[in-house]
Design goal:
207 residues; mainly alpha; two-stranded antiparallel sheet; 6 helices; globular; DOP1_C; DOP1; Protein dopey-1-like
């Protein structure tokens, strides 16, 4: 059928990305630097396809390989895309965990483990708790983990965005912002927000 053929095509495309990522990972640093504009174009094209977690997960894998096999100065134009995609995935994770929390609050703990389903604009249901989406969440977390683990001098561009994902050492609850003479807590890093929701979920599903 049409949908079966499309799924097979997307899986094949994801596999090709994985193979290309392995090729670059097996190479010397900057060996494929001259092909980086073409690579970036292909990655952006893959990210434009909506609701394709299996493909987007391979893009995150590709990002990790590029961090390890390309010099920082060659990745400057790629960082806005990487940060944007990370933020989108973390927001989706937060939305999913919040939805689970709301369902549990209204229906009881027995439904906490059920898949939450949303209806996309094309009329098809999308379960953001399915294994493919969980793999995408994991891929995004691995990219952030690598960016945090590498020395700051290796990723100077990432240091400008670091505060959005993890708290400063002196404050693990968020950033305090002063605006128009008021003092209020407005932003919490994504990791802090997700960790809080995950702790709540763990308490609910414990026997």
């Amino acid at each position: 059928s049409l949908f079966t053929n499309r799924d097979a095509e997307l899986e094949q495309r994801a596999m090709l990305l994985k193979r290309l990522a392995f090729t670059i990972y097996s190479s010397e640093v900057d060996q494929y630097q001259k092909y980086l504009p073409d690579i970036q174009e292909r990655l952006v094209e893959s990210l434009r396809l909506p609701q394709v977690p299996i493909l987007h997960a391979q893009v995150f894998l590709f990002f990790r390989v590029l961090l390890l096999r390309m010099s920082p100065q060659h990745l400057t134009s790629l960082w806005p895309t990487m940060i944007t995609e990370l933020v989108q995935v973390f927001l989706l994770m937060e939305q999913e965990l919040t939805a689970d929390e709301d369902i549990t609050r209204t229906s009881g703990p027995s439904v906490a483990g059920l898949e939450t389903t949303y209806s996309g604009g094309n009329g098809f249901s999308t379960s953001y708790n399915s294994q493919r989406w969980l793999n995408l969440y994991l891929s995004a977390c691995k990219l952030l983990d690598l960016a945090l683990a590498l020395p700051s001098e290796s990723l100077p561009q990432f240091q400008m965005y670091r505060w959005a994902f993890i708290p400063e050492a002196s404050d693990d609850s968020g950033l305090e912002v002063r605006r128009q003479g008021t003092h209020q807590r407005e932003f919490k890093p994504y990791v802090v927000r997700l960790a809080k929701l995950l702790r709540k979920r763990a308490k609910v599903i414990q026997p």
